[in-house]
Amino acid sequence: MYGRTVDNPWLSLDYLRRSGDEVWAHLVIHTSLTLQAMLIAVAIALPLAMLARRSRRLSGPILGITGVLYTVPSFALFALLAPFTGIGRTTVLIGLVAYALLVLVRNTLVGLQGVDPDVVDAARGLGYSPTRLLLTVELPNALPSIVAGLRIATVSTVALVTVGVVVGYGGLGQLMFRGMQSNYRAQIATSSLLCLALALVLDLAIVALAAWAMPWTRGSRARRRRRGRARVEEAAA
User: Where do the ABC transmembrane type-1 domain residues begin and end (predicted)?
Assistant: First the structure.
């Protein structure tokens, strides 16, 4: 047992030296699938959320349909899509977009609904058109909620890409599956750790982008920290 464990370690630089090109290729596929799926999902989710915000009659059906898509098991969805969209990237992308929609639509809608009505009324009083109101008042105020949904959806998508192995296009999931079939621990561990690292890097990138796009939140966080320290000092005194 000990000999087999030594010969089949979980972490192996030798595996990376021998299979580095293959690992890199699958990492690139995994990353591109995630980014492409998120871009498409955002492009679909934002108009749907705006439509649901404008029309209460459409809000229920939009959230209902995206909710139903989210509840379909991922293996089943990819298997159902394969006969119509074929084996490969397109099938995986459709599935990933479908799963990301609920989180993105719901968070965007919550953000838009949470905009202070007094701010909206003031903008209308200044003669803002509906488009200008949306772009300069409602969406900027809804950004924190949208970013929160984007972070959740992105991390979930990184994990779901691996399920694409059922249609032969799972990025790092291909390495995981082959490693499990052959009980190759280094292959399993390497692909799993890269998935984790990719999710972390993308999440941090979104946080950094949000901080750049919402500079006003940095000041509010600093004020909250100062108030928190003041309360602690008062309690200690």
Answer: 27-206
Residue-wise pLDDT for 199-217, tens only, equals: 999 999 999 998 888 776 6
In this prediction, residues 168-176 reach a mean pLDDT of 87
Domain encompassing residue 90: 12-236
Domain containing 63 — which CATH number?
1.10.3720.10
Number of folded domains in the chain? 1
Token duo for residue 235: 């309690």
Q: What is the mean pLDDT of residues 131-136?
A: 84
Is residue 6 included in any domain, yes or no? Answer: no
C-alpha 152 chain-centroid distance: 5
- Residue 226 has a pLDDT of 59
In a domain, 40, yes or no: yes
Confidence of residue 231 (pLDDT cuts 50, 70, 90): very low
- 5 found inside a domain: no
Q: Which residues neighbour 88 within 8 Å (Cβ) at sequence distance 6 or greater?
A: 167, 168, 169
Tokens of 207: 């946080």
In a domain, 155, yes or no: yes
